[in-house]
Amino acid sequence: MKLLLKMKAKDYDTLILFFPLLFRISMILLSVFIAVSIFLFPLENGERGTDFIPAILSIICLISATYGEKWVFDRKKNIIFTQTSFLFIKKHKMVKMNQIRDISVARFIKRKNPDSSFLKLSVYLKDQTSLDIEILPSRDIDNARRKGEAIAEFCSFPFRDLSAVSGEQEKPLITA
């Protein structure tokens, strides 16, 4: 399952990118499946419900189902709003659209694994800072470009494609 942000227009003036509900439902179902299997399939000694590792995995799946991420591009209010939540913790940021320089897709490599590259879909602000919308494997270049172009067109921002490829060799522009 790819964990990509879904994009949908709420109305004429609002575009939303959000973490899919399918992920949450899948994690809850997986958690329930693991928990039920602990009791249905006893250990070799005949004890039920004493398997430590499956219980931990079930709890991790249940906790991961609480993760959420949302981006709202609102032309009417002239704002971009982002919210990330995990368990009971919520982090949000609001930026006025007149502070935006452009939307871009850039290729980067991680120092730990220089053989693979990734793409970063970002909102660049006029003060030279950026807000990263999504990080994708480089094979998802079409998806990243499509989202970036759609956001840029919706908000009337310039779109920059910095995922340059020269010949056979990929040229990462950013090293993280």
Layout of secondary structure:
Blueprint: E1 6-11, E2 14-18, H1 21-40, H2 52-64, E3 68-74, E4 79-86, E5 89-96, E6 100-110, E7 113-125, E8 130-137, H3 141-155, E9 159-162, E10 165-166, E11 169-170, E12 174-175
Parallel strand pairs: 6-9, 6-12
Antiparallel strand pairs: 1-2, 2-3, 3-4, 4-5, 6-7, 7-8, 10-11
What does this structure look like?
The chain is of the alpha+beta class. It folds into 2 domains: 6-19 and 67-175, PH-domain like, CATH 2.30.29; 23-64, no CATH class. Helices cover 27% and strands 43% of the residues. The chain is built from 3 helices and 12 strands. The protein has helices at 21-40, 52-64, 141-155, and strands spanning 6-11, 14-18, 68-74, 79-86, 89-96, 100-110, 113-125, 130-137, 159-162, 165-166, 169-170, 174-175. It has a 5-stranded antiparallel sheet, covered by helices on one side. β7 (113-125) and β8 (130-137) form a beta hairpin. α1 (21-40) packs antiparallel against α2 (52-64). The radius of gyration is 20 Å and the shape is elongated.
Order of helices and strands: EEHHEEEEEEHEEEE
Structural class: alpha+beta
* Tally of separate helices: 3
Stretches with pLDDT under 50, minimum 5 residues: 166-172
The tally of domains stands at 2
Q: Which CATH architecture of the largest domain is right?
A: Roll
Gross morphology: elongated
Average pLDDT works out at 85
What percent of residues are in strands?
35-45%
Please tally the β strands and state the result: 12
